[in-house]
Amino acid sequence: MPNYKLRPHHGLCTAFFEGKGYSGDFVRNMANVIEMLERVDPEIILTVGEDMICANCPNNRTHSCESDHKVGRYDGAVLEICGLSAGDVVRWSDFRDTVSDRIISADRLPEVCGDCRWFNICGEKSYSR
User: Fold this and answer.
1) In angstroms, rounded to a whole number, what is the distance separating the alpha carbons of residues 129 and 127?
2) Whose C-alpha in 2, 91, 97, 118 is 20 to 30 A from the C-alpha of 36?
3) 92, 1, 78: which is closest to 42 by C-alpha?
4) How many CB atoms lie within 10 A of CB 80?
5) How far apart are CA 54 and CA 59, in angstroms?
6) Tell me: the pLDDT tens digits for 67-103?
7) pLDDT tens across 98-121, in order?
8) H or E stretch including 65?
9) H or E element: which one contains 89?
10) Domain ranges of the chain
11) Residue 84 DSSP SS3
C-alpha cells in the first residue's frame, strides 16, 4: 500500500501552484511535495482527510481542516467528475492527467472550487492554457 496520501482537490492545487500560500512552511512543503510527485511518480491514495500537503497548512487543526466542509465538497466534486472514489490507489501521473483532462481542460474548475480563496490565481491560469 502506498504511503502517499493526497486529497483529490489537491490535484488541482498542484497544477496551478506558483509559490504562494498560507505561510513560508506551507509553500516550502507544497513545492517539495510537487517536486517529489513529478520526480518519483508514485502510487497515491486518494483521501478525503489530511494528506501530505495539509501537514504544513495553518488551517490544519489537530489533523482536521478548519474548512473541512468546503474542501470536502471540492474533494467530492473531483472524485465524481474523474470517476474515482476515496481510497482509490492510482499512479500520480494518471491522476494528474485525469484531473487535467476532465476538469481543467473541460473548463469545470469554477464548478469544483470557484469559491476557494486562491481561485483568482487558478482561474486566471486555467483560461490562459
Assistant:
1) 6
2) 118
3) 92
4) 12
5) 8
6) 666 788 999 999 999 999 999 999 999 999 999 999 9
7) 999 999 999 999 999 999 888 888
8) strand 64-65
9) strand 89-91
10) 4-127
11) coil
Whether 32 contacts 117, CB under 8 Å: no
- CA-wise closest residue to 17 among 98, 123, 121: 121
Distance CA 122, CA 116 (A): 10
C-alpha cell at 88: 482509490
Dihedral, 79, 85, 50, 54 alpha carbons, nearest 10: -30
**Cell 495553518, residue located:** 58
From residue 10, give the alpha-carbon distance in Å to each of 21, 54, 70: 13, 9, 13
Angle separating helix axes 24-40 and 92-99, nearest 10 degrees: 110
